[in-house]
Task: structure prediction
Amino acid sequence: MEVALEVQRELESRFHEADQLRKQQVERAEYEANLARRRFMQVDPDNRLVADTLEAEWNEKLRALQEAKDFYEKHRRIDAAKLQNEQQKEIFKIARDFPNCGTTRRHLHERKSE
Result:
């Protein structure tokens, strides 16, 4: 039982760490998109070539941000499902082994009584 709990904590820790790394990617993408937006908003509208270039850069950063968010959400759902599956496996294993624990205890108790 103790080992199963330790494995569960380790899995949760790894999933949390991976989630944090993906979340940081989203935050970086948000920062870059905001930076590109500020650059575009500050450009002189009469300078069309620069404005067009900055607008294209901003659009690319927005696409990258959406991709990062989609990736984050997709893998968050996948990890949650994996964690739930691992939990169910451990519960079934414990439930399967539980009757043996009682038999072993009774057997030991009977031996002590003899």
